[in-house]
């Protein structure tokens, strides 16, 4: 099972300190699509989810809200 590591790369974006995904569910969905899961796939997806959460929170704040809503996750 992939785990998020604390810390990050010097000068680059750091990985989230917490895993936001259920590894078995993600791997199951990938397997159902007929593909294999690389060792770093969950770390990459987790970093993307963390980015989506940050972007949604910023959008909510920019709109004067403290509540993140579904439409805040839309990427345009």
Could you walk me through the main structural features you see in this protein, from its secondary elements to its overall organization?
The chain is an all-alpha fold. The protein has a domain at 23-73. 42% of the residues lie in helices and 0% in strands. It contains two helices and no strands.
On the 0 to 100 scale, the average pLDDT is 85
Residue share in helices? 40-55%
Give, in order, the helices and strands. HH
Report the biggest beta sheet as strand number plus sense, adding barrel if it closes: none
Strand content: under 5%
Q: Number of helix segments?
A: 2
Structural class by sheet pairing and helices: mainly alpha
Instruction: Categorize the overall geometry.
Output: elongated
Regions with little confidence, pLDDT below 50 for 5+ residues = 4-12
Count the E strands: 0
Radius of gyration: 15 Å
Query: How far is the N terminus from the C terminus?
Result: 32 Å
Give the helices and strands, then pairings.
Layout: H1 23-32, H2 41-62
